[in-house]
Design goal:
Shape: globular
Strand content: 15-25%
Radius of gyration: 21 Å
Low-confidence stretches: none
Distance between the termini: 27 Å
Number of strands: 12
Largest sheet: 5 strands, mixed
Bound molecules: 5'-O-[(R)-(carboxyoxy)(hydroxy)phosphoryl]adenosine, zinc ion
Length: 343
């Protein structure tokens, strides 16, 4: 067993991605395998927990095998098993956690539980040497939060969404105007076709702190569409399905609005923490090139270093769980087989 440079097998199944990865700090990411369940959930316009659980059950074995094969390893080469144990959909989490525990028990391999959000928070460090302390903006389908990241495993929550997550706002508004699921990438494509102009100037929110709120934005978009005669409240129908120009304008205004909200919050966080010299932007929404460029330009203007992971480490993945598992192993933070999804 090598705990200076352990070879870590990681498993991630907190939502709708079945993922496994193998990592060794000396060599880097040896494999990062993922089965995305988007096609299973698309017909419903969102993630259905029961469908997610059933798909994880089918996929977890093959995905873990594939990760080991691609890394050219067997379970006998694995020093640590890291697994996402919270937060997430209970049924989905239980499948990854039970699978990880079974492997750990059968092969007598130490087990480490990883918080999914800690995985996202450090995901930019898989590829970049980000200095501490830094501010991390995490934006995904389930979470939107700002952290002050002081060291490995040492971080402070500065603010978070009090209702919907940013990705959820993209997904819900996309559903409102019949764009399909997931909404984020489709909105980005349409916004580009409208040259990222701010047509409708949706509200940026008034919260005088580091928390976010996106549910009011969805309502503002809806009311604006009603005012324009584009949405019928009685039947809950979008009446301008043929009007690509309107869809582009909504998408474009929404994207500019959310980028502005992020930049306002970052400016406030940086003002409150003058010791910080770098900013990271992580999570599924960090796939968005427009928002990334806006934040990068803001950071440049304020002499801040800026880092974002490549897209494979933005959306849910097991590489980020392996990365956290590695430093937890080096810090001797192991778990036993009583590890639970509510711990
Ligand atoms: O991190 P992730 O894969 O899953 C969660 O942990 O939630 O994030 C998925 C979210 C979805 O809401 C999706 O619409 C959003 O990330 N997303 C994007 C883009 N690509 C994915 N949002 C905006 N622009 C994108 N290009
Ligand atoms: Zn996530």
């Amino acid at each position: 067993m090598n705990m200076k440079y352990p070879t870590v097998l990681a498993i991630e199944s907190s939502c709708d991605e079945t993922a496994a990865a193998v990592y060794n700090e000396k060599v880097g990411i040896l494999s990062n395998v993922l089965f995305s369940q988007i096609d299973q959930h698309k017909p419903f316009g969102g993630v259905i927990p029961e469908v997610a659980s059933r798909t994880h059950i089918k996929k977890i074995g093959p995905i873990v095998n594939q990760a080991l094969e691609q890394a050219n390893k067997t379970l006998d080469d694995i020093d640590v098993i890291a697994v996402t144990h919270k937060p997430g959909l209970p049924g989905s989490l239980l499948i990854g956690l039970s699978f990880a525990k079974a492997l750990a028990y059968a092969k007598n391999i130490p087990l480490i539980g990883v918080n999914h959000l800690e995985g996202h928070a450090y995901s930019s460090m898989i590829e970049h040497a980000v200095p501490f302390p830094h501010i991390c903006l995490t934006a995904s389908g389930g979470h939107t939060a700002l952290y002050l990241v002081k060291d490995f495993g040492n971080y402070e929550l500065l603010g978070q969404t009090t209702d919907d997550a940013a990705g959820e706002a993209f997904d819900k508004i996309a559903k409102l105007i019949n764009l399909g699921y997931p909404g984020g990438p489709i909105i980005e494509k349409l916004a580009k076709e409208a040259s990222f102009q701010d047509y409708f100037q949706y509200p940026r929110g008034k919260q005088n702190n580091l928390n976010f709120s996106f549910s009011g934005l969805k309502t503002a978009v809806l009311y604006d569409l009603v005012r324009q005669g584009a949405f019928d409240m009685a039947t809950k129908t979008f009446l301008k399905d043929h009007d690509l120009t309107l869809k582009r304008q909504v998408a474009s205004s929404l994207l500019v609005c959310i980028a502005d909200i992020f930049i306002n919050k970052l400016a406030r966080a940086l003002k409150e923490h003058p010791e910080v010299t770098a900013v990271t932007f992580v999570g599924g929404v960090a796939c968005n090139a427009y928002i990334k460029e806006r934040i990068a330009a803001f950071c440049k203007k304020h002499n801040m270093q800026f880092f974002a992971p490549s897209t494979q480490y933005c959306t849910d993945n097991a590489a980020m769980i392996a990365f956290v598992g590695n430093y937890k192993a080096k810090q001797d933070k192991f778990d036993d087989l009583t590890l639970d999804i509510f711990d």
